[in-house]
Amino acid sequence: MQTRKKKNTPLYVVLMLLLVCMTVGCSKQEDASEQSGLSADQSNTLVIGAYSVAKDAVGELLPKFKEEWKAKTGHTVNFQESYEASGTQARAIVGGFEADVALLAMESDIDKLVKADLVSSNWKQAPNDGMITRSIVVLGTRTGNPLGIRDFEDLTKPGVKVLYPNPKTSGGAQWDINAIYGAGLKLSEEQGKKDPAVAKGFLEKVHENVESLDKSGRSSMAAFEYGVGDVIVTYENELLARIAKGVHYDIVVPKNTILIENPAVVVDQYADKHGNRELAEAFVAYLRTPEAQRIFAKHGFRSVDPEVFAETKSSFPTPEGLFDINYLGGWDKVRSTLYSKRGVWYQVLAGL
User: Fold this and answer.
1) CA distance 267 to 51
2) Interval 181-187 mean pLDDT
3) Domain with CATH 3.40.190.10 in the chain
4) β-strand partners of 120
5) CATH among 3.30.470.20, 3.30.465.10, 2.30.250.10, 3.40.190.10 for 135-260+317-350
6) CA 235 to CA 134: how far, in whole Å?
7) What is the pLDDT of residue 20?
8) Which residues, at least 6 apart from 240, have a Cβ–Cβ distance to it below 8 Å?
């Protein structure tokens, strides 16, 4: 049997075929870019950097805003989204992640962007001091609350396994720590004097029972759903959203807990660089509209719009000893008192 000798394809044919493929490939890429609405100056693309707990609500808001923007301008807006723990997200944006809009868990994470000259220092001049949602720190237990948890004090009992995320990476965790520390201050006031030493001791006792420190509030919630721990310290909205999806937990509202406020800003430097400041500003303004606020409320957030909150407040109990960040002295004092290298939180971690 005779075998046919294989002929080598001439080099110039290979080069011609390669050139044709490259041309067709570029043409297809250009077509895809045109169909998606992307442009060289990115003016119709919005890059969003958000904290993880906001993901579900933002996911429902984006198509609504897309329709509104199309009706208003005739342009199709495209979204690029990133969801991380708030502290991680803020550091990523400072490090070069070019988000046009930042939705973060707390004011102090926005301050990191201000210090990096990415956001204007007057960002709090926006409505509601730049905040778009509110919540409170609550406790989540297994169905039926088998351990009879009623308040933060119950988290200090022997054998109670507690979950909250790591405040080094998670804004939600800092709210959790602030709530526990503030509850300790409230307890000391009830005994006659507002005493930081009592508050530190209270936080230490709770932390002794912590089962794990996860990266973000969403990761902590996932661990709890997987079966880790007896009680989770978390955002009220996170538990309400999970219950709405059919997950069965009990919510315990502590007598003394903190009001959470979550900001959103245009990242000025990146929005200007991308040529989409008008789009970014329109999106942040949309987050404050009644339509958007009702969607946030649907996902368990307390609305910053007085009328929308009045419509929904029956779903949101007001704790007797509700306090805000100013009770702890404001974010600057909280950062130095709790989260500096010699702060209370790091002393608790080190067992000092």
Assistant:
1) 15
2) 97
3) 45-132+262-314, 135-260+317-350
4) none
5) 3.40.190.10
6) 10
7) 38
8) 251, 299, 300, 315
Expressed in angstroms, the distance from the first to the final Cα of the chain is 87
Q: Which residues pair with 263 in a beta bridge?
A: 131
DSSP alpha helix (H) spans, 135-195: 171-190
Q: Mapping DSSP to helix (H, G, I), strand (E, B) and coil, where does residue 252 land?
A: strand
Does CATH number 3.40.190.10 belong to domain 45-132+262-314?
Answer: yes
What band does 153 get if pLDDT is binned at 50, 70 and 90? very high
* Greater pLDDT, 323 or 40: 323
Q: With contact defined as beta carbons under 8 Å apart, do 316 and 133 qualify?
A: no
Is there a contact between 101 and 267 (Cβ–Cβ < 8 Å)?
A: yes
Of the pLDDT bands very low, low, confident and very high (cuts 50, 70, 90), residue 352 is low
Partners of 136 in beta bridges: 259
Residues 6+ positions from 218 with CB-CB distance below 8 Å = 52, 53, 55, 83, 238
For residue 309 the two structure tokens come to 């909150």
Own/partner long-range contacts of 11-20 (Cβ < 8 Å, ≥24 apart): none
Q: Which of 128, 47, 120 is nearest to 89 (CA)?
A: 47
**Given pLDDT bands bounded at 50, 70 and 90, which one contains residue 325?**
very high
Region of 272 on the Ramachandran plot (φ > 0 left; ψ -120 to 50 alpha; else beta) = alpha
Q: Is the pLDDT of residue 3 over 50?
A: no
Angle subtended at Cα 290 by Cα 289 and Cα 292, rounded to the nearest 5 degrees = 65
CA distance 339 to 140: 25
Asked if the model's pLDDT at residue 8 lies above 80, the reply is no
The whole-angstrom separation of Cα 167 and Cα 6 is 66
C-alpha dist (Å) from residue 287 to 149, 282, 292, 304: 35, 9, 5, 10
Q: In terms of Cα–Cα distance, which of 200, 166, 20 is closest to 87?
A: 166
